[in-house]
Amino acid sequence: MIFDETGEIEQAYLKVMIYAGPGNGKTYTALKIATALGKTLMIDTERGSEPYRKTFYDPDGKPFVVTRTRNAKAIIKEAIPWAEKNDCKCLILDQASTVWEDCQTAYIMKEYKKQSKSWKFIEKNGGIPFNGWKFVKAPYKKMVRALLNTPLHVFILSRLSIDFKVNSDGEPINVGDKANTEKETPYEPAILIKMTHKKKSDEWIAECEKDRWGCIEGQEFINPDISMFNEIIPKLGLKQGAVPEPEEDMEMDERVEEVGNLALKPQIALLKSLGRKNDLDQKEFEA
Q: How far apart are CA 102 and CA 125, in angstroms?
């Protein structure tokens, strides 16, 4: 263990999560802010960058760079190192929701190929077993740590989902909105922002739900740009402290993800259908 008595701030870069429903400006806002800071790499998981390729340029007049993947390991091993080696200032992941879904799908396909006990559980119950979640979470959480540790300004984007709880009558009640990704992700970045769009006034609203410096938490910004972080940027340090890696022998987190993700249902249905075809060879399945 290291005990730091210097008082030095080890948060040198903005680490921001932005979540919103479709058409509420998360991609637009992230690009607007990131390109104002400098050369930007966007990891585009859903081709959401296409409408903005001729809209946003960095201070040198160059367009932002795009790479397309939804694979957590590729982001760790290729995208982040490329951004660091090629003098990028910012990195945008658009969207973390897709990467999280891909981690689940990759686990399901792996268990299908093995025809394991876990696959039989998935086929029977339509959800991932308790002991499978640690394998789903591992690459995703490693990716998030890499994004937090990299010496770049990072913007992690996520879809919005509705958070429900069941009342005493057994009826589902809407208790608010949340990011549609692994449930601990919003706690990781230093800043959490929810975007909305007021159609009548055609205003884009950024509501800061969390700010570890306490500068802008609880505030709303209309048509936000880089000035939204004017109070925070001077508080950044000179180096980026690393989020520690978990111990290899740590017990699995006992909190189980809800297995009601609608995105999984068509994937599971497809895999069930394929699994019943005895004459399906490996190449056909992968195709």
A: 20
